[in-house]
Fold this sequence. Notes:
This protein is an all-alpha fold and 199 residues long. The protein has one domain (5-198): Arp2/3 complex 21 kDa subunit ARPC3 (Orthogonal Bundle), CATH 1.10.1760. 67% of the residues lie in helices and 0% in strands. The chain is built from 9 helices and no strands. Helix 3 packs across helix 6 (131-157) and helix 6 packs antiparallel against helix 8 (175-185). The model has no long low-confidence stretch (mean pLDDT 93).
Amino acid sequence: MQPTxxxxxxxxxxxxxxxxxxxxxxxxxxxxxxAIAAQISIPLPFTPVPxxxxxxxxxxGAAALGSRLGMASQIVYLALGIAGLPVFAVxxxxxxxxxxxxxxxxxxxxxxxxxxFLAGWLAERGFDRRxxxxxxxxxxxxxxxxxxxxxxxxxxxxPAMGVEGAVRVGLTPFIAADFLKVxxxxxVMPGLWWLKSRR
Length: 199
């Protein structure tokens, strides 16, 4: 297992308390970035699921933090949303607070911790060091998000539409745009590793 970017940076500190504080700060930082990304939300007329940049923040953040801390950042994010803080995407139609997890986007949100864990796990095995493997790691994490979202739509939020309908409104409209987002986001971690090596 290879060190994550956060672990490599924190390794410079001999103090265990300082390293723990750095980890907590990094988790909260990714949580805040996820909440900010949620506010960049574009409603689409043909689907109840809005277009956001959250998945990319979830995956890049997890790659930097690793599996355990990456997952923790998204659990904290969900906890803040359940508590009623305005961290979920702004929407005139989707419910607020804990009720958001029962709506059409609930499956995507609930999949974030698992997608973060997978992306972080792959980063711990060096997938974030090179562009092509970073693309693979991001696509794997994104697949978890879409699987959770589509299954939630088909089984709980809108069971009448079935799996085929859930794929049509919860996956198909986002494939091209999210693939382009993955291609862009996958360059972040190798770039940060390169900067670290230069320093």
